[in-house]
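Q: What does the assembled structure look like for these inputs?
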Amino acid sequence: MISPDLSRRYFKAKVFHLFCASVAWIGVLILGVLLFHVTREGFPWLDMQFINDFPSRFPKKAGINSALFGTLWLIGFTALFSVPIGIAAGVYLEEFEKKNAFSQFVDLNISNLAGVPSIVYGMLGLVIFVRWFGLEESVLAGAMTMSLLILPVIIISTREALRAVPGTIRQAAFALGATRWQTVYAHALPQAFPGILTGIILALSRAIGETAPLIMIGALTYVAFVPEGPMDEFTALPIQIFNWASRPQKEFHELAAAAILVLLFVLLLMNSIAVIIRHRLENRNR
Amino acid sequence: MKRLLMFFALSTVFLLSLGGNSLAGKISGKVRIDGSSTVFPITEAVAEEFQKKHRKVRVTVGISGTGGGFKKFTTGQTDINDASRPIKSSEKKKAAKNGIDYMVIPVAYDGLSVVINPDNDFVDHLTTTELKKIWQPESTVKKWSDVRPGWPDKAINLYGPGVDSGTFDYFTKAVNGKSQASRSDFTASEDDNVLVMGVAGDKYALGYFGYAYYKENKSRLNVVAIDPGDGPVKPDEVTINDGSYKPLSRPIFIYVSKPGAQRTEVNEFVKFYIQNAGELSKEVGYIPLAEKDYKASLEKFEKWSNNLLGENKTRLNVKKASLR
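A:
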């Protein structure tokens, strides 16, 4: 039965369209307002002195050198641990594992782990890495904790990406006599790689902005030196931002905004590198 | 940068050539500090100044909170703990169990301020009884007229720090008589800046937080004089320092561990801290103690740590003797 009232139906469709569009734009608008506010407050403070100096009680002399390098060390090691393990686990679960009750149990647990609040990982890291392993408040302990935090995200996105590879490709490889390993290594993984890369970037972006687990494992707040090795103490940008934002003086709030801009810049840089790599790979695959 | 290094190298040579007993630049090592975020700004300032003088010493400061900091302090993981309250008996026991002896040093005052909106024209002061009436658990105060007859029949909107904060501990103890005992239907935030914004935008608001936050926002807030029974007093540098602002000013401390104080770098740092805490605490928004208090602390610390260093020497001598 078709309603004769065509204009009414078109009107409904239009309203729904507008509703969806406005919802999408709200997200962009909020980001815009945030960026505008942060840039207006923080931009005047951005200069080489801000990048090169250590924290200080004088806002004019304060800088983020130790926090910036702490974050770079932390993210570097986090990627080193979480990316190989995450991809390997994803490949195993998607391509090799037999489907049974146990594998379903493992799947369910990994999905659940992705939703665990970050502070819980901080407590885990404190007990295991800081105390049992005796790593103390080092870059290594922080990176291992962060790796735990983002592993589920990498595993899940690896699996999603592999699942999106058409089954016909695998079947073709098998038909030509390839082993499962050859199929995965030469065909499924390269096809899935752009998707995996997106997952890794999202996961590392999450790690770069986390504060709670780092404070939990005892990452420091005032450090006037740059880590020289994985066993050194460190601080990170989100901790410095948190500390400055909770100070009473307005100048420190502006410094926090400037540090946020630096953090956003690092994030953007990471993302654009990933986009470039992904673009190249996609071209090669074609 | 090179020039700067050159300057320091030259000045070090100069100092050394003078043959003075200055330790500047000569000592190295680590000073590990953790604890209260309330004390952090002072410790950060001291660390900054100390490292200008002793370039090779690495001072690190964390903000795990007073309790979180004591956990590390009592197991010997840190040398100094920033504390916005005295050590608890359970923490004392733990320290004793691990053989960590320590000394407490008050470094400054932190005054809590009770604040209202500048448009609020009826509150001139509050008595401690009225404060208790407002903030006690199961308080029946809903409107300003419930606090004092004659005040407007308008809802009173309350703002205060979250339950994990040392400020909350202290206020509830001072006002309600028991730490952590408070009504719970108020807007709470761990971030005092949020409370500042809340009270600044609400004519019928009442809130409390650290004095430094009031001082930085004087134009947007009015502070309430508190009357403990002998007349209302407003918090300021003078009344907090001389103790006439009662009962909402508290001393904040550092705890120094004995194994820490036996190391030259920590020992020097603590002395430097006591000598400069007055000036530096003022710079970051706190109220310094009286000059004589710092002097007394310094003497006490020197005596305590000299004994410790003495212990070290005797032990060394015994070793030498046994080697012979």
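The two ends of chain A are 47 Å apart (CA to CA).
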